[in-house]
Amino acid sequence: MRVLLFTRYPRPGAAKTRLGAVVGMDRAAALQTAFIRDELRMLRALGARVTVCCEPSTPTGEYRALFGPHHDYAEQRGSGFGERMLSALHDALEAGEPGAVLIGSDLPDLPAEHIEKAFAALGQAPLSLGPTPDGGFHLLGLTVPLPADVFAGVSWGGPQVLARTLDNCRRLGLAPILLDAWPDVDTVEDLADYARRNRDEDTQTMACIRRFNLVPDAWKS
Predict the structure, then answer these.
(1) What distance in Å separates the CA atoms of residue 58 and residue 26, rounded to the nearest whole number?
(2) pTM (2 decimals)?
(3) How would residue 94 be classed by pLDDT, with cut points 50, 70 and 90?
């Protein structure tokens, strides 16, 4: 199974800025690094073939130096977020993958079962989507290329991302399978929710939270 991990380089001031506005930009960048490492650990344990899809203002070699040589790395291509996601997925299909799943870099405790269910769903439909509670989606799986206007009118980061995407799918005659919802970590409230779920876990993200004493009410007894 080919999983694409879509990310920007965790540079202070450019990564997780909504978190950074509260906890500080250096700490937000450290958190994103931890998020990605936890996701990569989960994907390695699952046996997935991983491509880290890198925002191109930072050379892919810097991503490789930070996250290790055991994954593939590719630059994101396209003029907008939706176009870049579709380009990455279409590239995987053109390379011979029967299906590919794309996830973001803000899902530090995404269960491996969500990836497995996404690929299982692709055996029944050419498109699968994993919602987030805030109205977006955390996962996009494909077995066939999608038309570019599947994301027409989508305001990325807003509360109608999933709804508008589903409207476009209906208009285009597509019937995606919706998977279980899972929260991403964008805000300090999301971080506190993560810490409550994982207070006893040995993860890179929890280690970072403990080191900086972030959201202590969520995990300290």
Answers:
(1) 17
(2) 0.95
(3) very high
